[in-house]
């Protein structure tokens, strides 16, 4: 058969599952006590529910319980910390990590390694982006000061589209809230 649903061990169940609407769950109305019982996804559900709170420190107790009971692997903890860092209140992220590791000394190294990896990934990404922006600014300045566009294109290997983009006005610099300048 050419129907992809026939490739399942139970095509009838597959048809029921993949041809019906998926029920959506509003996690914000599910009580925390119920979420904590969701085992492997409890950690991420709990954070998703409360991420817009000004202070996530009130969740530390529940998070510690979930982490101590091994409800999350390294990849889930990485996703959790990334999500908190990107969506939550960045000013309190360091305090949050410190408190989490203080209450879980047996997992301190694991959490700190993950937090450090997230920080380093962001730092390297920022360095690369900064380098790219610096190169573009330099090329724009060369063009504005009379450098031959064909010469610039030849030595940089930029495409015609990239050269045209350089002729656009410089974008306003946005400061990254995660970097201390």
UniProtKB/TrEMBL annotation:
Highest taxon listed in the record's lineage: Bacteria
Q: Name one GO molecular function term.
A: double-stranded DNA endonuclease activity
Pfam families xref list: Transposase_31
GO biological process terms held by the UniProt record: DNA recombination
Q: Where is the Transposase (putative) YhgA-like domain?
A: 1-77
Q: Which InterPro entries match?
A: Rpn/YhgA-like_nuclease (IPR051699), RpnA (IPR010106), Transposase_31 (IPR006842)
Q: Which family does it belong to?
A: Belongs to the Rpn/YhgA-like nuclease family.
NCBIfam families the record matches:
T_den_put_tspse (TIGR01784)
What protein am I looking at? Rpn family recombination-promoting nuclease/putative transposase
């Amino acid at each position: 058969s050419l129907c992809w649903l026939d490739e399942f061990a139970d095509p009838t169940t597959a048809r029921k599952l993949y041809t019906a609407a998926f029920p959506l769950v509003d996690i914000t109305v599910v009580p925390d006590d119920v979420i904590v019982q969701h085992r492997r996804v409890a950690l991420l559900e709990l954070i998703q529910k409360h991420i817009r709170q000004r202070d996530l420190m009130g969740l530390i107790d529940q998070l510690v319980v979930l982490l101590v009971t091994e409800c999350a692997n390294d990849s889930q903890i990485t996703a959790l910390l990334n999500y908190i860092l990107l969506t939550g209140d960045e000013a309190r992220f360091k305090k949050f990590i410190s408190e989490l590791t203080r209450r879980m000394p047996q997992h301190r190294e694991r959490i700190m390694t993950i937090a450090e990896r997230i920080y380093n990934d962001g730092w390297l990404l920022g360095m690369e982006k900064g380098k790219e922006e610096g190169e573009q600014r330099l090329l724009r300045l060369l063009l504005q000061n009379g450098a031959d566009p064909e010469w610039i294109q030849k030595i940089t290997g930029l495409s015609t589209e990239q050269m045209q983009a350089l002729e656009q006005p410089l974008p306003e610099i946005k400061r990254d809230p995660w970097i201390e300048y």
